[in-house]
Specification:
102 residues, alpha+beta, 4 strands, 5 helices, 4-stranded mixed beta sheet
Length: 102
């Protein structure tokens, strides 16, 4: 498991994430979400719905990992969308992802 997913697991244990399309869209609309992580293998309709909500409410989003990896980290079988609801975890996760890209 890479460090970004490990950090996402810490955020889960701290109670700072929401998982699943419905809960993530609710977190975006209520202003709780700081970052949306979308699995690379999400359906086109699911991607469009959450990306449109993120753009409208000004929440950053990234595509990272696959649904099975995100599900494992969040404690479910598959999750295509995860909302990080804490600024510090958001910054930590993004820094881990940027290090991977370098």
């Amino acid at each position: 498991m890479d460090k970004a997913l490990g950090m996402l697991g810490l955020a889960k244990r701290a109670g700072k994430i929401a998982a699943g399309e419905f809960l993530c869209e609710k977190a975006v609309k209520s202003g709780q979400s700081r970052l949306i992580i979308i699995a690379n293998d999400i359906s086109d309709n699911g991607r469009k719905a959450i990306c449109d909500a993120c753009r409208y409410y000004g929440v950053p989003y990234i595509e990272y990992g696959v649904a099975e990896e995100l599900g494992k980290v969040t404690g479910t079988d598959r999750r295509c969308v995860v909302s990080v609801n804490d600024e510090n975890f958001k910054n930590a996760i993004l820094s881990k992802i940027e290090r991977i890209d370098e």
